[in-house]
What we know:
Elements: H1 8-14, H2 31-39, H3 64-80, E1 94-97, E2 103-106
Antiparallel strand pairs: 1-2
Amino acid sequence: MPELKAMARVLGPKGLMPNKKSGTLVMQHELVEAVKSSKQGLIEFRVNEGAFIMNKIGLRAFDNEKLNENLNALMDAIAKKKPESVKGKFFDRVQLKTSMGPTVKLSVAPF
C-alpha cells in the first residue's frame, strides 16, 4: 500500500484504489481464494447517495440469454443482501441503460 499512496489522487476518484472492503486488497494467504471467486463471477455492486445501484451486466457481444442470466444473478445477489429490518417491497424501480442509449424500464414483479 505505501507504493500506491502516490497514485491515490489518480486512482481514488475513479474508484480504482484497492481496499479491503471491496475485496480488491487481500492478504497473501487469501489470494488463491480471491482469484477463484473472481473467476467464478464475483458480483460487486455499490450503492450511491441516492440509493441507486449502477452495475455492468454484460457486453455488446453477449446474447440476450446471457444478459438476462447476468441480470437475474445481480438482482438475486442484491435481494440476498436485503437487511432483515427492511419490510415490504425492496425494489422500487428497475431500469436498464446502455452506455449511450435510452433507459428501458423493467417490471419489478420478478424480483
